[in-house]
Amino acid sequence: MTDTAPRPTLEAVAERAGVSRATVSRVVNGAHGVRDALADRVRRAVEELGYVPNQAARSLVTRRHDAVAVVAAEPETRVFADPYFAQQLRGISKELTAHDNQLVLLLTEGREDHARVGRYLAGGHVDGALVFSLHLDDPLPGLVRGAGVPTVFGGRPGWDDGRDDVVYVDSDNRGGARAAVRHLTGLGRTRIAHITGPLDQTSAADRLAGFRDVRADADAGLVARGDFTSGGGERAMRELLDRYPDLDAVFAANDLTAAGALRVLRERGRRVPDDVAVVGFDDMLPVAEETDPPLTTVRQDIEGMGRLMARLLLRGLDRDTAPEPTTGVSAGAPSGVILPTTLVRRASA
Amino acid sequence: MTDTAPRPTLEAVAERAGVSRATVSRVVNGAHGVRDALADRVRRAVEELGYVPNQAARSLVTRRHDAVAVVAAEPETRVFADPYFAQQLRGISKELTAHDNQLVLLLTEGREDHARVGRYLAGGHVDGALVFSLHLDDPLPGLVRGAGVPTVFGGRPGWDDGRDDVVYVDSDNRGGARAAVRHLTGLGRTRIAHITGPLDQTSAADRLAGFRDVRADADAGLVARGDFTSGGGERAMRELLDRYPDLDAVFAANDLTAAGALRVLRERGRRVPDDVAVVGFDDMLPVAEETDPPLTTVRQDIEGMGRLMARLLLRGLDRDTAPEPTTGVSAGAPSGVILPTTLVRRASA
DNA sequence: GTGAAAGCGCTAACAC
DNA sequence: GTGTTAGCGCTTTCAC
């Protein structure tokens, strides 16, 4: 572990180039109005000295950090159960990088961490925050608001207090669910069941709503509660099969759930998709492609969600962001942006 | 997106408490030698004003940031193919949090990003770096070294230039592989094949070495090259079966590979584990538990690796880290720390 | 034990 | 166009 060498300052560069600090500063920050000859001298001096601006000094005066916090509750979300969060992070990272912003990752494990996150956010270390809030009673959002930091949420926040300045990005869970169920009805299926996710998460609630949109008159018993895990999918599938031995289709709230359901169906001697058609949600590759048969499922643009979150935040921060005509973001302050989903047909339905 | 309110400064607190800035600074930084009465007054003022230190100002003088960069090459590693990296991140985050350090995530997509990362690291924004370097020819390590930032590597670096100041944390890939293969021989298997990972990654190379440790005299044909994906596992399994229709066991370099192998075995009418026993590596839950049959595999303490990386870095940074008697880290500057692996028995072998 | 004062390295008015 | 100067908010000698 090497020691950090003393780094050259603006002053040093100025001296070497024979100009004032102000001029060096202008050149370094790409300002206009410096004669080419001088600018070149400065650039050469920067090069020779290996000068790198001291961000702390800069932030102290500009009050900008070019850094954004990404806040996620680790145990409660499925952050680490699947690559979902990782993909969002990737999208966020790409977008932030493109605009020279750093990504500060704040993972919370429990209540003790909330105070810490609040303090950090309030501490003015970052210019904004990207917050993943998937639970109805998540304390994080309130906290972030209290900190007074510009924020974009990932996933539709559960609370809805009428404030229209809450910016969030979500994928079209409800529409995706509708598409899935319609696909099933299109296949001629008539006894279609749904295994939900944990209904305190808006994504799960929205998918259930989408199911109901299409199957408004379905028996209540055709909806079984799952928890986004394959074990939960197994349990729910058993329940459903016990109640409705003649069901011919299942829409599972996510791919893991579908994988569990698939196992139970096989165990009970049902052929998929012949006897029972199955559709999942997420298109989580390591799962959806590995099941037997491979899963027909609803794909969301997860990375795109991440990118968009970052973009919206940066835009709100008055950074120079390219206009974004494709995502349907309205001018002004969009409250929520919903990304489309697409049905991916494989063998299970 | 709310605006940031003007925050109170040390000065303001000092005035309110009727003391000097120096005294407030001492109290805030937990220094000794301030009379209790005064300290209390200061703390109250801090509370009332909602004072939070300005980190930029502090860094400017202390030259510390209490921040650590985590650098990972995104497309080349399996960073986002599975929850592996996410779990390490979690471990890292926990440890950093416990020592009041922030985590700055630097994801690189390709060569263009390297310069950026180098600049950032050299820019003195962080006190140290945690670098995931899984490829033999990864440019990142050299870059990080050039930046002169204290660093701990995740995974045994491929290069080995004799410098013993390279600190890294890895899990016992070789030992784990040995355990896996021994398990197979213990089962009475005699024709044991190995599907490797991409051999330019040290983890894959080490697992192959472990296989060879136990099966020194195995036919070269019993080793087929995979790439850590299930598709690669399928291809390799087909090859192996074509060459050795009588093989009775397979050690796959990771769980995804094993999942692919399992599919081909089923397709070819081999019963697992009766005809062919299969062992994977990683214990990547969403895969290992979902395969049919569930996978016997080698588990690594992934989160523990992350924690340990962070701990070693912080220690090298002279932070107050608790002594760590359990992991076998020697005093002084340990070069490489290898975490143990354990065999997890399920149904496939 | 406490305060005064000197910067840390940079940007942004403001002169020239 | 370019230089001068005054801080940004904090820590840290060094007096007292």
Across the major sheet of chain A, the strand order is 2-1-3-4-5-11
Cα distance, first to last residue of chain A?
56 Å
Could you tell me the strand content of chain A as a percent range? 15-25%
At the first level of CATH, what is the class of the largest domain in chain A?
A: Alpha Beta
What is the CATH superfamily label of the largest domain in chain A?
Answer: Response regulator
Apparent shape of chain A: elongated
Work out the helicity level of chain A.
40-55%
Described by its quaternary structure, the protein is homodimer
Largest protein-protein interface: A-B, 70 and 67 residues
Structural class of chain A: alpha/beta
Structure description:
Chain A is an alpha/beta fold. The first copy, chain A, has 3 domains: 10-62, 434 Repressor (Amino-terminal Domain) (Orthogonal Bundle), CATH 1.10.260.40; 67-172 and 303-340, 3-Layer(aba) Sandwich (Rossmann fold); 173-299, 3-Layer(aba) Sandwich (Rossmann fold). Helices cover 42% and strands 15% of the residues of chain A. Chain A has helices spanning 10-17, 21-28, 36-49, 55-62, 84-98, 111-122, 140-147, 173-186, 202-214, 230-243, 255-267, 285-288, 302-316, and strands spanning 67-73, 102-108, 128-132, 151-154, 167-171, 192-195, 223-224, 249-252, 277-279, 297-300, 336-339, 341-344. A 6-stranded parallel β-sheet of chain A has the order 2-1-3-4-5-11, sandwiched between helices. In chain A, strands 7-6-8-9 form a 4-stranded parallel β-sheet. Chain A has a two-stranded antiparallel ribbon with strand order 10-12. The N and C termini of chain A lie far apart (56 Å). Chains A and B meet through helix 4, helix 5, strand 2, helix 6 and helix 11 of A and helix 4, helix 5, strand 2, helix 6 and helix 11 of B. Strand 2 (102-108) of chain A pairs antiparallel with strand 2 of chain B. Chain B binds a DNA duplex (16 and 16 nucleotides) through helix 2 and helix 4.
